[in-house]
Amino acid sequence: MFNRTMQSLGETRSAIRELYEYGRARKREIGEENVFDFSIGNPNVPAPACVEEAALRCFREISPETLHAYTSAAGLDEVRRAVAAHLSVRSGLECSERFVYMTCGASASLAIALSAILNAGEEVIVPAPYFPEYRIFTEQAGGKLVPVPVKRDFHLDPDAVARAVTEKTKAVLVNSPNNPTGAVYTQEEMRALGAALREKSASRGAPIWLLADEPYREICYGVPPVSPFTVYENTMILYSFSKSLSLAGERIGYIALSPQCANAEALFSAICGAGRSHGYVCAPALFQRVAASCLGRSADIERYRANRDLLYGALADMGYRCAVPEGAFYLFAEALEPDAEAFCRRAQARELLLVPSDSFGVKGYVRISYCVARETIERSLPAFRALIGEYRK
Amino acid sequence: MFNRTMQSLGETRSAIRELYEYGRARKREIGEENVFDFSIGNPNVPAPACVEEAALRCFREISPETLHAYTSAAGLDEVRRAVAAHLSVRSGLECSERFVYMTCGASASLAIALSAILNAGEEVIVPAPYFPEYRIFTEQAGGKLVPVPVKRDFHLDPDAVARAVTEKTKAVLVNSPNNPTGAVYTQEEMRALGAALREKSASRGAPIWLLADEPYREICYGVPPVSPFTVYENTMILYSFSKSLSLAGERIGYIALSPQCANAEALFSAICGAGRSHGYVCAPALFQRVAASCLGRSADIERYRANRDLLYGALADMGYRCAVPEGAFYLFAEALEPDAEAFCRRAQARELLLVPSDSFGVKGYVRISYCVARETIERSLPAFRALIGEYRK
C-alpha cells in the first residue's frame, strides 16, 4: 500500500540504530551502568567551549528575525566564505565560497552529492568495509554500490579500485579516517588513488569523481589526513561537524568542490537541485554560524586517544585480533567465530553491544565504538574477557 | 554528465527564491530601503521570547554531550510526547507519540511523507493554486501532481476534488491557511472533503490519504482552522514551526498521523524509511527541545494582521482586485495583464518584487508576501499606484 522500499527501509532500521535502540531500552531495564553500549558513533566528549560561546553570542548580538531567518539554499555568504578560507589553508589551493554548499550533516551531504551526480545504473566504488548508509544513498539515487576490499591492514588498495572501474563508474567514495576500521589513508595511498582516477578518467574521456567523506578529519592520532583536493582535481569534500565539534544532533555540515574540478558550475547546480528535491531548504541557521566560528577547532581528542589505548591494549592482551585504530573512534576486531552476528548475540548476552560487520560489507568482524565514558570501557573488560573465555573452552 | 533532473532543478531555482536572490543583490545596489521585496515568506516578526528563553535554558541545564547528541530518528521521546499531547488537545482525539516524527521543517515533512506513500505513477490531488515545491516533491517520489482549481473565492471545492479521484489517486494535499491565497478552509468544506474521501476510499477498497500541510495554522485572522484529524481518519498533519515561531532558518517541524488512520505502524515505518533514504538522521536537537517548549505559542500575529489591513485596503482602493486574506501572510492579487510574468517585470522596474502565479499552477495572479516591515508596505504604495496607472493610460 505504501512505498515498499521505504517501508522496508523503515522496518529494518540500520543494525547500528537497532542496537542503539535496544541499548536504550535495556538500560532502562537493568540500569545504565550495567549495559556496555559500543553501538553508535555518538561523541561522548563535550562540544568545545567555542560552540556555546558562539551560540550565546548569536542570541546576544543578532536580532531573532535575522538570526532564525531562512538563509540562501547554499548557506549564509559569510559562513561559506569562512569554510572556503579554511579549506584554502588546508589544501593550499584557492577555494571559492561559490562552491561551498552547507548541509544538514554528513548523511545529507552524501544523499545530496550522490543524487546530484548519479544517473540510473551508474556505479560508485567504495573500499569495503564501508559505512552501511552509503548503499542506501547510492541506491536511492538510482546508482549501484561496488565494494572493493581494502588491504589486510584496512588501508586503501588503489590498484584494486582502479581494476574495479568500468564504463559505468561515476565515482569513488572514500572515508578517511575510516568508519568502521579506524584506518587513516596515507598521502602515498591517496596520491596513488588520484593518479589512477586521473588515468582512468582520461582514457574514458569522462571524469570519475572522488567523493571524500571526512567527518572524522580532526579525529586522528598520528599524521593528519591529507587534503583530498591536493591529490585529485575532480574531488568533492563531504563534511560534517558532528564528530569534530560533538554536534551530531544539530545536523550541520557541508559539501565543497575542488577549485580545480571540471564543470564546477553545472555540478554545483546539480547539488542545489538535489538538495531542493530532497526537501532541504537550508542548513540550520544558528549552527551555520556556530560552525563557522569554530572551524578547525575540535572537542578534546585526547580523551578518545586514551579510550583507544585502554580498549585496544586490553583486548589485544586478552587475545582479540584487531588493528590499532589511527583515527575516528572505532575499533574493528575479528569476531571469534565466522558468523559475526552469532558472535554479537553472545556478546549481547553479556551486555556488550557490538555491531556485526555484515552491514559494513564484510564478514567476520565487529565494530566497537569507543566514544564512551572511560568507565564504560573499564567496567566492560571482564565481560570481554569472559566472552573470549567462552570460545576457548 | 551529472543528473539532468537535479541539474535543471538547481539551474531553474524556484521563482520565489530567484526573486529573493535578485532582491538581495538589488538592495546592495540601490539601498535596502529602495527595494520593495514581497517575494519570500520569511517571517519578519521576531520569534516569541519563549524561543530564546528555551534555548538558553537548554544551554544552562543540559550538558553539551547530551544536548547536542543524536536523537532517535523520529525525535526525542519527550518532544514527541509533547507534540502528541498538543495535537490531542487540538483534535479532541487521543494522539500517540508513537506516530509523531520530528522533521527538518515543512519541506522535509512533505518530501518524506510523499516518498513514504507514493509508488510510481500514483497521483496526488492538490487544490490550485498551490505551493510550487509540491510538484517537485511529488515528482521526486515518482508520483504525479493533479491540480484541481479552487472556487473563485479561493476556497476548497470538495466536489471538484472528488471528481478528480481516479484509481491512481493516493493522496489529497491541502494547505490551510493557504499559501499563496490566504484562504482558510471552513469546517464545512473540510468535513465535505473528509466525507468525499471516505466514500471514494470505501468504493475503491483502499484509503486515499489526506495530507494536511499546515505551517500557517496559527496565523489566522478569523475562525481558527479545524483540526484535519477531526474530519477524516486517514490523515497526516505536516507541520513546521517556521512561520508560527518565526524559525524558518532553523528547520524544525513534524509529521503526525491521525490515531484513527489505517495501518499506522506500516505507514510510520515507511516515513522512517523515507527519512533515512533522504539523509535525514534526526531533526536538529536543540530546536526539537525549543519547539516542544513553545507549542501553541506564536510570534505576534497582530503585526501581520495590521500589514494585511494596510496592504489590502490600499490596493483595493487603488483598484487592484484581490480577496481579503483570512490567514497566512500572502495576498493573491489579479495581475493587470493576462501574462503575470510580464506584469511582474513591469512591477520589478518599479522595484516591486512580486511572484507571478504561474509556478503556483494558475495564470494571471501575483503573490505578495506581506511579512515585511510596515514601512516597506507604506513606502511601496506610490509604486503600486504608479504601476496601476501605467495600465490605465
CATH class of the largest domain in chain A: Alpha Beta
Which two chains touch over the largest interface?
A-B, 86 and 86 residues
Multimeric status of the protein: homodimer
Largest sheet of chain A: 7 strands, mixed
Q: Any idea what the CATH architecture of the largest domain in chain A is?
A: 3-Layer(aba) Sandwich
Q: Note the overall shape of chain A.
A: globular
Q: Structural class of the secondary elements of chain A?
A: alpha/beta
| Share in β-strands of chain A | 5-15%
How many structural units, i.e. domains of chain A? 2
Q: Helical element count of chain A?
A: 14
- Look at the structure and name the CATH superfamily of the largest domain in chain A: Type I PLP-dependent aspartate aminotransferase-like (Major domain)
Residue share in helix of chain A: 40-55%
Overall residue-averaged pLDDT value of chain A? 96
Helix/strand order of chain A: HHEHHHEHEHEHEHEEEHHHEHEEEH
What distance separates the N and C termini of chain A?
51 Å
Strand order of the largest sheet of chain A: 2-8-7-6-5-3-4
Q: Which residues of chain A form runs of ≥5 with pLDDT under 50?
A: none
> Which fold does the CATH topology of the largest domain in chain A refer to?
Aspartate Aminotransferase, domain 2
